[in-house]
Write a structure and sequence with these properties.
This protein is of the alpha+beta class and about 70 residues long. It has a single domain, classed as OB fold (Dihydrolipoamide Acetyltransferase, E2P). The chain has one helix and five strands. About 5% of the residues are buried.
């Protein structure tokens, strides 16, 4: 999750995996894959940097769980 601030000053945590795109018009508008839009105080470069920082901190791991077959021994 990354912190962002709505225009009214309210802080919230955003799941960066849901971000579809970000634009400045002139306020920063974050559009989510759900179609929802968030208008935030942070600039576009600030939001992008937070998303990049979030992704850098993720451990290298497979996106989906991997099932490892086991052999039963008699």
């Amino acid at each position: 999750m990354i912190p962002v601030t709505r225009l009214n000053g309210r802080e919230l945590s955003l799941n960066p995996e849901l971000v579809q795109w970000i634009e400045e018009a002139p306020d920063t508008v974050i559009t989510l894959v759900t179609g929802d839009k968030l208008v935030v105080r942070e600039t576009l470069p600030q939001v992008v940097e937070r998303i990049l920082d979030y992704r850098r901190e993720l451990p290298a791991r497979p996106l989906l769980p991997v099932a490892v077959p086991t052999e039963e021994t008699p």
